[in-house]
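Message: A physicist's question: would you kindly supply an amino acid chain plus C-alpha cells?
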Amino acid sequence: MAPVNKYTKIAVLLHWLIALLIMFNIILGLGSGYVPDADVRPMIDLHKSFGITILALAFVRFFWRFSHTPPPLPADYPAWEHRLAHLAHVLLYVLIFAMPLTGWIHDSAWNAAASHPMMLFWMIPWFRLGFITSLDPATKDMVHTLFGRIHTYLSYALYGVLALHILGALKHQFYDKHPELQRMWR
C-alpha cells in the first residue's frame, strides 16, 4: 500500500478544532429556540463567543493553508471529484469567514447592544463594530434584520456544504477504500 499523504499536525488540529466549534455553534444556534427564556441569552452569548473564536482560528488556518501546501488528492480520483472537492473547500472557507462576520454585524446592530456588553466566554470584553453601532436607529434596525437573515441563509448553505464534505470523505474511505480519513488524522 502506498504511503498516505497527510496534512500537517497544525492543519489537522485547526481542522478538527474548527469543526468541533462549528458543531457546538450549530447546536447552540438551533437549540436556543427550544430552551426556557432564562437560558436563551447565555446560549446566544456562548454562540457569539464560539463564533468569534472560529473567526480567529479561520484566519490562522487560512494563513497556515497558504504557507503550507496541502497534500494532493490521490491521482486516481476522477477529475470531477477533484473539482468538486476544491469547490467544497473554497465554499467552506468562505462560509467559515462569512458566518461569524455576518453574525458580528447582526449583533453590532442589535438595538439592545449598548445595555448588553459583549463578553467572550463571560470573561473577555469584546467590541462591537463601531461603524455599525453608530448608525441611526432605523438604519441599524434594517442592518440587524438584513444580516440576521443573511446569517441564517448562510447557515443553511453551511449545513449543505458540510454534509457534502463529510459524505465525500466517507465515500472515499468506505466505498472507494482510499485512506481518506487518515489524511486528516494523526
Notes: Residues 137-175 form the longest helix (39 residues). DSSP finds six helices and two strands in the chain.
